[in-house]
Amino acid sequence: MSKYFRYVCSRLAKANVAAFNLCILVHHCLLVSFLYQFQNWKSSSSVFNGNPN
C-alpha cells in the first residue's frame, strides 16, 4: 500500500514539475514576445519622434 502511495506521490511530483516548467516556459515566451513588440514599437515610434525639427 505504501509503495503504491509513494508511486502516486512521485508521479504527482513529476507532473507538478512538468506543469511548473510549462508555466515558466509559457510565461517566458509571453515576456519575450512582449519585450520584442515593445522594442519594435519604441523603434518605430522613435522614427516619428526622433526628429526635433
Automatic annotation (TrEMBL):
Protein name: Uncharacterized protein
UniProt keywords, alphabetically: Membrane, Transmembrane, Transmembrane helix
Transmembrane regions listed in the UniProt entry: 12-36
